[in-house]
Design brief:
The structure is a homohexamer. The first copy, chain A, contains six helices and no strands. By secondary structure, chain A is mostly helical. In chain A, helix 3 packs antiparallel against helix 4, helix 3 crosses helix 6 and helix 4 crosses helix 6. The longest helix of chain A is centred in the N-terminal third of the chain and has 26 residues. Chain A starts with 8 loop residues before the first helix and ends with a helix. The relative contact order of chain A is 0.12. Chains in contact: A-B, A-C, A-D, A-E, A-F, B-C, B-D, B-E, B-F, C-D, C-E, C-F, D-E, D-F, E-F.
Chain lengths: ~130, ~130, ~130, ~130, ~130, ~130
């Protein structure tokens, strides 16, 4: 039911890279590029484990996965750049702006109003950048 | 598109109470009961704001809302009782055990392996209790 | 002893709006305005629940409430804009600058020196803006 | 205005020990005793810095200090034993049970409902133990 | 300088398994076993990424790696079971009990006294279990 | 084995000041200076407790202490200015850039990829400033 564990390491990297581009688009590629001179191995791990392993699993659709990430990063409140990447990713995989906004608002219940407010203002910036 | 803001306070409480029972079932009622002697007003707020306001909004389906909560509480890692309530709530509103497990696993990427492990062990307890 | 639960929703909103202005002043109004185009319902919830419900309760004086918020937001360390709003709010409801500074310093014991340092530098900015 | 920095180290320790007993009572002494075989120096630091330095400062009354700690530990949500010690400490220095409950409830706004719920249940246990 | 990326997936898993046993010993094997019926794929990822990839890198000695983990988990304060596994792991790779205690004490500066206290009490339990 | 507790307060301050300069260099002195007009007593405590007490203890070498701090601040993710100071401090006391990078990368396992990414980008800035 999950990806074949006999797949070669190159296939895993390739699968991760394609999944990263499908979900995060240009924003994901920029993160990878920014790691090149400080921690190139970490760029490889980022492609292989989150994208080659986790996001490639068919047990959960990508839309639900992005709902989960937007919720978690809003609640944690200490990773704004990654939250912005995933607000855009949520739109890339089929969430509407209204759904993304709704997930962030809901976090007021679980992580407090400041976390939700900061998430909403991050979404506002992402939406404005897309409209520009 | 959202609930009518002219609704009376009693309707808001009533709507929240029904939503709480639909989502959290008996586990939710127990939380409310446990608040009776220490903070009865807080029980009322809990029914009114999260359930009467937020969960009653039609902009996001309940399944996505529970994916969001399970993700956030797994990532925060400091609210195990509430995480268990919402693992069961996710099943109540249509998530499969496999989907819930998958959301928790994904949190390894955003909040680390310990958070995901503790979430998985919480799910294991909830599933075992349901099977018993 | 607490607000009458038979109050109409409009009264609750009105009471919240007045409390928001009393506590947060212009800074609070700006937050509400900034939500208008992304999540107007959330602006309403923010007025209704925190201010119309919680801050309107007579069981705790506003000065103690602001001590509590400044402490919590300093300790959490991931909501600087809201911390600044509440440092100013603490002054609005009667705390001295010295008391606010003291609450933040105390957080070194409970959340570490970095959290306290970042809180102190936030206070320094707020005090400087007020003096300008 | 603050404690004389020429005070000797023994006076600082002594002052801290008396302040610890005034605020935390027996619960504080138990924490110190529990450290004896694992980290006795840490017990000394705990007496000297938080109690000998911070809590001995006259710039903020002890009641406000305990409001601040109860708020912060409720919001952080990962230090239940210390939260319980300070719920009792808040009562020791003059807060009513209602005020303590109110501070914890307010944290729903800043750290979410699960944090507030867990704080309220901690308070319930402390109050029950005091009544027994 | 780092592990050969042409290594096959089976070698990566094997390398991870051996590293897990070297560092975490029996406690690590128990975690893997506990995942068998809820999330066996997650057990595989846990072996492959943290142990097969990260801990197998020669750029940092295992003693420093365990100092880093004990520090981080003490500071986060929401993963006590994993902190205990790594307190024991630190001893397994050559830290003394005094060094482990010292790392935890130091966290009072960066995450507050409650986090450090809870870490010290976790260490006390681990040391007592080893002595029994 | 630890510092003599009969040392006078002036010696403790002096020892702390020298330790602060040894570890944090100019960056540490700037923090102290920035506190002068808002909380001069806090500057004194910062010198006395973390540096005069904790960092002056001989039970753990300074290199291990900085590994611990870089790990903890990366994992907490809400104290970037202090993380940068300690990335530089780690280099000051003998860590290589590669070791610092490695500690930060490892935090992906314990606090998630966003925390590690933000830590790596902080390190990139520190290294670039040192090279300029």
């Amino acid at each position: 039911m999950h990806q074949n564990s006999n797949v070669s390491i190159n296939e895993r990297y390739q699968r991760g890279w394609e999944k990263l581009r499908e979900i995060d688009g240009e924003a994901g590629e920029k993160v990878i590029a920014a790691l090149a001179d400080i921690a190139p191995d970490f760029a490889r791990y980022l492609i292989e484990f989150p994208f080659g392993d986790i996001y490639s699993r068919p047990q959960l659709d990508l839309k639900s996965r992005e709902v989960a990430v937007v919720a978690a990063l809003t609640a944690l409140g200490n990773a704004t750049p990654q939250l912005k990447v995933h607000i855009e990713a949520a739109l890339n995989v089929g969430c509407t702006r209204e759904e993304v906004t709704e997930v962030i608002m809901q976090m007021a219940v679980y992580a407090g109003f400041p976390a939700a407010l900061n998430g909403l203002f991050a979404a506002k910036e992402v939406f404005a950048a897309l409209d520009a």
